[in-house]
Amino acid sequence: MSRTYDVVVVGAGIYGTTAALELHRRGRRVVLLDPGPIPHPLASSTDISKVVRMEYGADSGYMALVDDAISGWHRWNETFGETLYHETGVTMLSRRVMAPGGFEYESYQRLLERGREPERLNAEEISHRFPAWRSDQYQDGFFHARGGFAESGRVVSTLVQQARRSGIEVLEGVTVANVTVDRWVATGVATRAGETVSAGDVVLCTGAWTPWLLPELQPVMRSTGHPIFHLQCDQPKRFSSPRFAVFTADIANSGWYGFPYHPRANVVKVGNHGVGVAVDPASGERVVTAEDEVQLRQFLASALPDLAEAPLVYTRRCLYSDTLDGHLWIDRHPEISGLTVAAGGSGHAFKMAPMLGGLIADAMTANPNPRLSRFRWRELASETDSEEAARYHG
Ligand SMILES: Cc1cc2nc3c(=O)[nH]c(=O)nc-3n(C[C@H](O)[C@H](O)[C@H](O)COP(=O)(O)OP(=O)(O)OC[C@H]3O[C@@H](n4cnc5c(N)ncnc54)[C@H](O)[C@@H]3O)c2cc1C
């Protein structure tokens, strides 16, 4: 195979599929490559649900970006004629009374400044309105109706079908070995099967695998594994809207977050947005350990007692493409022209899906977009810590 395109997009997760669709919409001849099957079972984007929240502590930039993304999620539900995004609302719970500097407090203030109407809840109101929560654990918090979850794996499948229908070549079974470069100009990619795909531009959307394809990123981008748990739930109503919503449970101090009863998978999913463990995406163990389960059970016993003994239906250690500062990485390579890198989701990019394609296409075409400045190619000192306000640092 030796073919030529305007753009070769490598990786058909949420970054790659949205980038391919947007670049095609802007008139480029695009090919999308992935080892497949798509959605790839090991891809971060592949799961039953991802949180869609506007709340980012004091960070009004992400809040504005996700607010726009949520309008996009509604458009997608309409365009595709199915509910890919469920607007259950979100409950942000705090073990102490919310105070300045805290994730919940700052998020609440930013929402008010943005003219949104979060409903503040004290301990009594939490247990009255959301009775599954232990009444003595969370003193404060709020419910915000604009937010919920997206069925991430189905979103990727739907977008790839849309891509195929619109004439984008989507090639599964193709693993890229390296970007081909001629005198500092990217000319395409070489595949593990020994073939080449030539293109005017290469866009790498390879998530956690990216620092292995581009080693110069290893000092600033890591692959970290994070546990998720699917729990059997024999009280669907108690764990469904309006009695239960997407939640963060004192997340900046614990990492715990989760979802209501899933309409298709019939489970309650819980995850931990913490430090994680280093995992090599090509060979590393992606298992959830007994210790992870012990921590889960302790959390459930202290917060959601009805689920404390609930059987586990499925567990997975899913990988973040983790930048040191926790911000996305969407920019052109500083030395190799014609090469754009879009990765660094750091455990929080899926919710921005309706905005990702535009951001990536703007970066590739150097189209001015103020939102790209924080995602630019950047130097990061090794001791840099994630700035993403919900992230639990252990
Ligand atoms: C446990 C967990 C929970 C999360 N929860 C949330 C959440 O609640 N809300 C939220 O907004 N975000 C969340 N995220 C983050 C979100 O899932 C990611 O930021 C996003 O899905 C990253 O998409 P991606 O396209 O960069 O990567 P991926 O989805 O991993 O896609 C990368 C693709 O590249 C392909 N690829 C890799 N190497 C090659 C190669 N050599 N050649 C060709 N193709 C290749 C892979 O097959 C894969 O399909 C979570 C992530 C994890 C891991």
Q: Could you write a compact summary of the structure shown?
A:
This protein is an alpha+beta fold and 394 residues long.
Instruction: Give the overall shape, derived from the CA principal axes.
Output: globular
Strand portion, in percent? 25-35%
Query: What's the SSE pattern?
Result: EHEEHEEHEHEEHEEEEHEEHEEEHEEEH
- Bound small-molecule species: flavin-adenine dinucleotide
Largest sheet: 9 strands, mixed
Backbone structural class: alpha+beta
CATH topology of the domain at 94-146 and 222-323: D-Amino Acid Oxidase, Chain A, domain 2
CATH architecture of the domain at 94-146 and 222-323, please? 2-Layer Sandwich
Name of the CATH first level of the domain at 94-146 and 222-323: Alpha Beta
Query: What is the strand tally?
Result: 20
Overall average pLDDT = 97
Distance between the termini: 48 Å
* Quaternary class: single chain
Determine the CATH superfamily of the domain at 94-146 and 222-323: D-Amino Acid Oxidase, subunit A, domain 2
Helix count, DSSP H or I runs of 4 or more residues: 9
Portion of residues within helices: 25-40%
Low confidence ranges: none
Rounded Rg: 21 Å
Task: Provide a descriptive summary of the structure in words.
The longest helix has 21 residues. The radius of gyration is 21 Å and the shape is globular. It has a domain of 155 residues: D-Amino Acid Oxidase, subunit A, domain 2 (D-Amino Acid Oxidase, Chain A, domain 2). Helices cover 25% and strands 28% of the residues. Strand 15 and strand 16 form a beta hairpin. The model has no long low-confidence stretch (mean pLDDT 97). Strands 5, 6, 7, 13, 14, 15, 16, 17 and 18 form a nine-stranded mixed beta sheet that branches. Strands 1, 2, 9, 10, 11, 12, 19 and 20 form an eight-stranded mixed beta sheet that branches. Strands 3-8-4 form a three-stranded antiparallel beta sheet, with helices on one face. The chain is built from nine helices and 20 strands. It is α+β, with helices and mostly antiparallel strands and 394 residues long. Flavin-adenine dinucleotide binds next to helix 1, strand 2, strand 3, strand 13 and strand 18.
